[in-house]
Amino acid sequence: MAGEKTVLIIDDDTDLREALAEQFALEDGFAVLTAANAGEGMERVRRDNPDIVIFDVGLPDQDGRDACAALREEGENVPIILLTAQSGDEDHVKGLQSGASDFLAKPIAFRVLLERVRTQLRRYESSEDAVLNIGPYVFTPGMKQLVNQEGKRIRLTEKETSILKYLYRAGGQPVAREELLDRVWGYHREANTHTLETHIYRLRQKIEPDPGKARLLVTDTGGYRLQA
């Protein structure tokens, strides 16, 4: 799981919402947003682009499952974990049919919820639907593109996309050249370090304001890392 992740907690139970927010805030790598009802929560999803949403089913203004389904219809693919006071199989199925990524029955143990959150984040980052933040860019691996803050689209090759994905998943840690070669080109490869360096050079031409003084895709410890 790379970089700090924003978790949005949508629940009308003030005590539970604040307790979960406090617990996530104590964990490394999380920022927290909250909402007390479905309408506010949906607006925060659209406006604040959280990395994952924890959505209570029993909200005063709208069933959380219906809100989840509405977000999916809008094209929102952020992971959503539904919380419910019911634990029957039928309720579980309805939750998943709404487009939820996962489903938990109350009362919940925070360590269980935390592990579910981390699992969903890892799964999402590995999917073709992922939308990742890299410095000033929004990176969509499935579309092989970056979009800058002005909305300009930067097209990437398949190998450039794979390099960025692997470096992103390293969470800001350096990745050795040989490891990148093996992961991007495969173990039965003909590519060498010169091939990798050529791709890194071309990537920097696309994403660095001053490619000669890289600030985002930097050389480090015998390899490369993303400075988010």
Question: Which helices and strands, and how do they pair?
Answer:
Blueprint: E1 5-10, H1 14-26, E2 30-35, H2 38-48, E3 52-56, H3 64-73, E4 80-84, H4 89-97, E5 102-105, H5 110-126, E6 132-134, E7 137-140, E8 145-147, E9 153-155, H6 158-169, E10 175-176, H7 177-185, H8 193-207, E11 217-220, E12 223-226
Parallel strand pairs: 1-2, 1-3, 3-4, 4-5
Antiparallel strand pairs: 6-7, 7-8, 8-9, 10-12, 11-12
Organism: Glycocaulis albus
Pfam family, one: Trans_reg_C
Keywords: DNA-binding, Phosphoprotein, Two-component regulatory system
Structural class: alpha/beta
- Helical residue percent band: 40-55%
Q: Average pLDDT value? A: 89
Q: Low-confidence parts, pLDDT < 50 over ≥5 residues?
A: none
Q: Strand content of the residues, in percent?
A: 15-25%
Strand order of the largest sheet: 2-1-3-4-5
Give the tally of β-strands. 12
Distance between the termini: 13 Å
Broad shape: elongated
Number of helices: 8
Largest beta-sheet details:
5 strands, parallel
The arrangement of helices and strands along the chain is EHEHEHEHEHEEEEHEHHEE
Instruction: Please tell me how large the radius of gyration is.
Output: 20 Å
Keywords: DNA-binding, Phosphoprotein, Two-component regulatory system
Pfam families: Response_reg, Trans_reg_C
Protein name: DNA-binding response regulator
GO molecular function: DNA binding
